[in-house]
Target: Fe2OG dioxygenase domain-containing protein
Amino acid sequence: MQALLFEQGVQRIVEDQTGPITYYSDVITPALAKAWFDALLAQGDWHESSRMMYERLVGVPRLHCHYAVANPTLPSVLRDALAVVRQHVDTPFNSIGLNCYRDEHDSVAPHNDKLHELVSHQPIVLLSLGATRTMVIQRKKPPRLKTELELEAGSLLLMGWNAQLHYDHGIPKLQQPVGPRISVAFRVRPEKASERW
Model:
């Protein structure tokens, strides 16, 4: 899977009925990206968790936290980030999920977002902060074309709701050392589900 178009910081990875998937570089300045990263790393309500895999309980290889946009205790940095995202994507986001990849050992396996936890046909937007990590995007059915996308600090990745039906995405572990990265995911969840996040 190759990018169809790259112009003025916009890279269209998928632009047909299976997408869209679009990458926007340099949405915020490096200085602002660092300030937001430092604030979220220090202030985020970070948790470790575990899940059953292959009939045993294993630790999830990253930290995470979630916020409802309507929550009055939503950190101010996330309100600022939401305002920037809405300048690029006109969507009524009501849920913000964060993942912290502490080093090269943290990862997320190839997956698609669970559609029953999303409002139909609303996109997902990821804001990247901190170290650059590679996202692998692969089509589910043949031809199983694959793109490796470098998610840089201050960038946005937009994935259309329909893309979850056709593509998996993941952040693989690395062999070489890398600093921490925070992924800030903006979603529209059904009303009752958004209250839990």
User: Anything to note?
Assistant: Residues 140 and 166 are 6 Å apart (CA to CA).
